[in-house]
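Researcher: I need the complex structure. Ligand is thymidine-5'-phosphate. Inputs:
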Amino acid sequence: MKKVFLNLLKQPITNSYLSKINKKTIKKEFFYNLSVTYDNKTHLVSLSKPVNPKMQFTDKYAHRASQSITMLKSFKKISKNLKKRFKPKKTLEIGSNDGVFLKNFRKKEIIAVEPCLNLARITKKKGYLTYPEFWTKKLSKKIFKKHNGLDLIYAANTICHIPNLREVFDAISISLDKNGVFVFEDPYIGAVLKMNSYDQFYDEHVHLFSLLSMSKLLKDSNLRIFDIDLLDTHGGSIRFYVCKNISKFTVKKKVKLFKKREIKQGLNKFKTYKKFSLRVKKSKKELLSLLKKIKLKGKKVISYGASYKSATIFNYCNIGTELIEYATDTTKNKQGKFTPGKHIPIRSPNGEIEDNVDYAFLGAWNFVKEIKKKEKNFLKRGGKFICHVPNIKLIGL
Ligand code: TMP
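Model: Output:
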């Protein structure tokens, strides 16, 4: 049974940056109520009512995975490791974005699946076989017919976006070779609870996974987990190594130990999630109080990164231009637009943070190491970052 534990109020679609602010665009903006549930049968944490994926993954999709050095490095490392460990001859990526993972493979060795047409066009142009579609059983059958069984299927920050997980995993079962592996990574619910990073909940993150939930869900599609990794990416992610029930892989000891760790953290109990929701409320109160205090002193505050995650914070905490003057973002097609819901203007960073800025809210807190390196001058002249995880705090030199 699913039970709501968190209510993040009215939220827009995070990827719907507004080009103009006027009566018409404001009236047209879509909002939904973002509440989060825990299912005591599967241990899965999901949004109560997912938004229609056709409204989210359009030909205007803004996020470009290759724009962060951290992610470029991460994809390079994982592709090298996967090639060494599994020696795949035929690989497929679900949710290939702008090709940041694909580029580590030879063109004839990899197939891309990407429903956002603007992104699919990018990888097609680069010469990768790209299916501009959602990952479904129908597509998987088509791919199996054409290419036979796949040795490796990979997905990063994609599977948690898909409402119907049964369809995803059944589709994997169809085109995966008997001894093929399915490797996927997504933000980890254990890290969200630990870091109080409630901004991991937004329309695209339909679910947040644990080992406990994933072990149960994969069973229905005759799949099983044989290994896992915990990652730093996106503020704490989990990577699952999955195979068919009948395959040769033996389960690593680490998997059993990790399950015990999750039980100790209470990931199988509703009350753990309920307690988290109280910490979220406290975080909102403290962030608003800090921003108001800084503003009263006449200081200038911006947001570093107009990330999807920050949209959850700004809309939940009701933070607009009265508290945050503008946001900077390196993503070209966010620049010149306005953040969804709260309509904070987005600028190009133009090098470093401007001299007259006193505080920068870390909208992209998951890249804090990369950002601190880039913004040494800001810190040297006394500038401070505002960070909301794990507690509201200021980061200086
Ligand atoms: P993400 O957490 O969903 O990847 O979003 C991070 C956003 O932050 C993305 O739009 C790019 C932006 N960003 C910057 O503007 N400057 C930076 O230095 C980094 C690392 C990210």
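Model: Summary of the prediction. The chain has a mean pLDDT of 97.
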